[in-house]
Amino acid sequence: MSTEIILEKDIRTLRRESAAAFQQRMERQGTFVVRLLSSPGSGKTTLLEQTARRLGDEYRVGVLVGDIATERDAERLAPLAATAQITTGGACHLELPLVEKILPQLGEEAFDFLFIEDVGNLVCPASHDLGEHFRVLVLSTTEGDDKPGKYPKAFRTSQAVVINKIDLLPYVPFSVEQAIADAKDVQGELVFFPVCALRGEGVDAWCDSLVERRRQMLTKNGGKE
């Protein structure tokens, strides 16, 4: 005799509710959560280094770094911001319970900006909500301009694309115009930031956008700087 078990809420609903609760908790303390997705080697960590340098003098910045193995990226960022490593041990993306478990390692002080650097992967992370306010895909010119068509969900679920390594455009077969057009076909509201994170080109505009988006979050929730 078989027994049928009916779950009142499926796991996807529970995950959405947990992500919404986490986001609301961050909003109450004035923390704007930015999550970075990308392929391995796109320059996420270099972008975060430049971002932390620019925001760190005026804002409290925290970073959670996700990797399958090693703490190398976290070690690079530690001198610039409160940083904690999340080592998945093989999992191809971060999960919210793990984020919430590691977050206290940054300390008890609330942050103005919390950056979550997900595991380098354009597939798995796109399907999981970590409660971020701003999901950003980092696309490097060395990867080729065909990624929006090959990995549409990663672009569809993001709100912005940082096109990194623009200094290499003369040397690689990458069309910024084609990449933007294909990405907009997938998600028409995407915002684009062409940068060379290594040299800091374009990073000021990126940081200005983050500050403005946090201001809008605070205004929406009745907060202030």
TrEMBL record:
Q: Which is an annotated Pfam family here? A: cobW
Q: Per the database record, which ranges form the CobW/HypB/UreG nucleotide-binding domain?
A: 36-191
Transcription found in the keyword field: no
* GO terms assigned for molecular function: GTP binding; GTPase activity; nickel cation binding; zinc ion binding
| Gene3D superfamilies linked | P-loop containing nucleotide triphosphate hydrolases (3.40.50.300)
UniProt KW keywords:
GTP-binding, Hydrolase, Metal-binding, Nickel, Nucleotide-binding, Zinc
**Lineage: superkingdom:** Bacteria
One Gene Ontology BP term is: protein maturation
Family, per entry: Belongs to the SIMIBI class G3E GTPase family. HypB/HupM subfamily.
Under which name does UniProt file this protein?
A: Hydrogenase nickel incorporation protein HypB
Encoding gene, per UniProt annotation: hypB
